[in-house]
Write a structure and sequence with these properties.
Shape: globular
Radius of gyration: 23 Å
Order of helices and strands: HHHHHHHHHHHHHHHHHHHHHHHHHHH
Strand content: under 5%
Largest sheet: none
Structural class: mainly alpha
Number of helices: 27
Distance between the termini: 33 Å
């Protein structure tokens, strides 16, 4: 039986691992979860049961974790929008009323052959409601190869793809292939819904979306999907998608010519984003075909491109930066001060990540924006997104994709008293990692 001190240490380690998982590539996240299971099983239990888990980590745990992991995730009140008890998923849609008389009069009672079912999904695939009903009606077992051939010939409508993700029971490879719509007319209002649904269902991670969504400009737009009505990212999901897209764009560096070429080719390129980035870096792309501009694409690329920091604020800014290293009398007072500095333009999210200590508080926006308990967390999204992007950059530069280095950071983070750059330097350079005197 664990002591109170061991229990406290396990809970704190779980809290810190949840922060580190936000910024780790999929294979590194899987390595962290495996090491956590081997070194501190209690911490893994607290991680699954109590923490704000990033969506990709939930997918990895639902996909590869133990039944105990899935049991605890299903009861975690901070896991939002997953196919869990009381939340949207196959069971909820299976409880819907049967086909309406109008639909029965149009398509008949079934059973449907495979080709007939695909044709009906095309005809009624604008929204997922009718395709979900069709998939519950009698039909021949859907052959995945036939489905993928039909989708490659002419992509299914977004509502049909969303219904297949919700109720089709498809393997991961088929779900990935259904997100490739390079031969489809790229106009439309609901194109993003299958990608959001794939993450919400725990089927795919953000990194897998970046690899398989086509054409590439849709991936760039998914990184800033927040003005769309209806189904869209919550703030933590938007930050996770931004992290995955920025990771794919990292070969461009900060060369403005490469970013300009990316924007010039993105609207006409039909492949996935990694293919586009490789073509831009290697200069192997043909001249883009003429065509209408994609609404919002230039703004989306502008938000992802690196920007040079301009000095501002003078003495007041220097005092605000210094205050990040001075603990206030209470957390509430600290939150009020940081929010005021953000509102006045004296601090940015990048500043908080670089200068606030301890590092575990800098990584947790609840410690400098105030604690919230709803899916679209925080009323100041821009500082949150900027802080996450800066943390992504620092982790990538310092740790690369070495799972052991990421694990050392996660183990050190709970008791480290310095800033995040200081922690990363100590871990990568060796020597003592204690931030306290």
């Amino acid at each position: 039986m664990s002591t109170a001190v061991e229990d406290r240490n396990s809970r704190r380690l779980a809290w810190c691992v949840a922060h580190v998982l936000r910024h780790a590539p999929d294979h590194v996240a899987a390595g962290l979860l495996d090491r956590l299971e081997r070194h501190d099983p209690a911490a893994r239990k607290y991680l699954c049961r109590d923490e704000w888990l990033p969506a990709s980590a939930v997918t990895l745990l639902l996909r590869d974790g133990s039944p105990q992991d899935r049991h605890f995730i299903a009861r975690n009140p901070r896991v939002v929008g997953r196919p869990l008890p009381g939340l949207p998923g196959p069971a909820r849609y299976a409880a819907r009323p049967g086909p309406s008389p109008e639909l029965l009069a149009e398509v008949g009672p079934g059973p449907f052959g495979q080709g007939e079912l695909v044709a009906l999904l095309r005809r009624h695939g604008r929204r997922p409601r009718i395709p979900l009903t069709l998939l519950r009606m009698p039909h021949d077992p859907l052959d995945r190869e036939l489905l993928l051939r039909e989708h490659a010939r002419a992509p299914l409508p977004p509502g049909a793809v969303e219904a297949l993700l919700l109720a089709g029971g498809l393997p991961r490879e088929t779900c990935q292939a259904l997100l490739d719509t390079r031969t489809q007319d790229t106009r439309g209002r609901s194109w993003h819904r299958p990608a959001v649904r794939a993450v919400r269902m725990g089927l795919l991670t953000f990194q897998e979306l970046v690899t398989h969504v086509a054409p590439a400009h849709r991936t760039l737009l998914l990184a800033s999907l927040h003005e769309t009505s209806g189904l869209r990212w919550t703030l933590p999901e938007r930050a996770g998608m931004q992290t995955a897209v920025i990771r794919a764009l990292r070969p461009l560096g900060d060369d403005p010519r490469l970013w300009a070429e990316l924007l010039r080719h993105a609207h006409a390129f039909r492949g996935a984003l990694p293919e586009l980035v490789t073509g831009v870096v290697c200069d192997t792309l043909a001249e883009p075909a003429a065509g209408p501009p994609v609404p919002g694409l230039a703004a989306a690329v502008g938000r992802l491109a690196p920007k040079a920091a301009e000095p501002f604020g003078g003495v007041e800014r220097e005092l605000a930066l210094a205050s990040l290293g001075v603990p206030m009398e209470s957390v509430q007072e600290d939150v009020r001060w940081v929010r005021d500095c953000l509102a006045r333009g004296l601090l940015t999210g990048e500043d908080v990540i670089r200068h606030k200590l301890p590092a575990c508080w800098a990584l947790d926006e609840d410690h400098w924006l105030g604690e919230v308990d709803h899916p679209d967390r925080h009323d100041r999204p821009e500082p949150v997104l900027a802080a996450r992007a800066e943390a992504d950059r620092l982790f990538a530069v310092a740790l690369g994709e070495d799972p052991e280095a990421w694990w050392r950071v996660a183990r050190t983070l709970p008791d480290f008293g310095g800033t995040l750059p200081h922690l990363l330097l100590r871990v990568t350079e060796g020597g003592s990692v204690s931030g306290r005197s």
